């Protein structure tokens, strides 16, 4: 006979980036971070800014605080409120469930009061106008009026699966209008080191396009090489 699991399991110790590491990701576009991860890290494209970012400025970067809720349940994410540190981004796995909301304006309002910088979930949200008034950046899969349960079981602080990525508490979340990227805790310094060269490369490219560039040199060189055949 299988015993019932505890309603909540909370990780006793949670990793956290340094203030300097967190500062290195502020204002960095998600595309730069993906490039610094050699093409990895992006959550699936169905997780996007609340209302496509029309009414809330959805840009944030900060350490992940994870909550594993399971489908149609929000007990764990409410429990996570107790463990938010200023600047955290709460990341809640809702098992990609779309039948009811993974949170609403009351939840995100309390997150903001606790100092959270944002909220990411793989479920829809409710109370759109209320969330706009709160103003906390939110990334989700859509909007629904349907209510969730609050019965557990769930966990706080443990690794979760969300948007085809694994996220652990202490990983860096970088999110903007394009979506959400997770940087594993163990790769923070590597990615920070890569970001400067990527930033310079992107700025150079943008300046050249603004100045009228019509085609990268490498494309023109390829088209003129023996690696390309022109046929009728």
Automatic annotation (TrEMBL):
Residue positions binding substrate: 104-107, 126
Top-rank lineage group of the source organism: Bacteria
Family annotation (InterPro entries): RraA/RraA-like, RraA/RraA-like_sf
Stored SUPFAM superfamilies: RraA-like
Residues annotated as binding Mg(2+): 127
Keyword list, A-Z: Lyase, Magnesium, Metal-binding
Molecular function as annotated in GO: lyase activity; metal ion binding
Keyword Calcium appears in the UniProt entry: no
Positions in coiled-coil regions: none
Cofactor(s) required, per the database record: a divalent metal cation; Mg(2+)
Protein name stated in the entry: Putative 4-hydroxy-4-methyl-2-oxoglutarate aldolase
Organism: Roseibium album
Source species taxonomy: Bacteria, Pseudomonadati, Pseudomonadota, Alphaproteobacteria, Hyphomicrobiales
């Amino acid at each position: 006979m299988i015993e019932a699991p505890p309603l909540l399991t909370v990780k006793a110790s949670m990793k956290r980036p340094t203030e300097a590491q967190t500062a290195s990701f502020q204002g960095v576009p998600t595309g730069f971070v993906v490039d610094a991860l050699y093409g990895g890290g992006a959550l699936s494209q169905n997780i996007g800014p609340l209302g496509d970012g029309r009414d809330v400025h959805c840009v944030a970067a900060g350490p992940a605080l994870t909550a594993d809720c399971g489908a149609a349940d929000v007990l764990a994410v409410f429990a996570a409120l107790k463990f938010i540190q200023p600047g955290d981004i709460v990341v809640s796995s809702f098992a990609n469930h779309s039948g009811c909301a993974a949170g609403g304006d009351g939840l995100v309002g309390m997150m903001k009061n606790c100092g959270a910088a944002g909220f990411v979930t793989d479920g829809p949200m409710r109370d759109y106008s209320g969330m706009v008034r709160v103003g906390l950046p939110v990334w989700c899969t859509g909007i629904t009026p349907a209510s969730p349960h609050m019965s557990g079981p769930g966990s706080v602080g443990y690794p979760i699966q969300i948007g085809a990525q694994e996220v652990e508490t202490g990983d860096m979340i970088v999110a903007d209008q394009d979506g959400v990227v997770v940087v594993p805790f163990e790769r923070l310094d590597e990615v920070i080191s890569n970001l400067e060269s990527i930033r310079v490369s992107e700025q150079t490219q943008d300046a050249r396009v603004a100045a009228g560039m019509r085609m990268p040199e490498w494309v023109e060189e390829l088209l003129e090489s023996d690696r390309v055949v022109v046929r009728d």
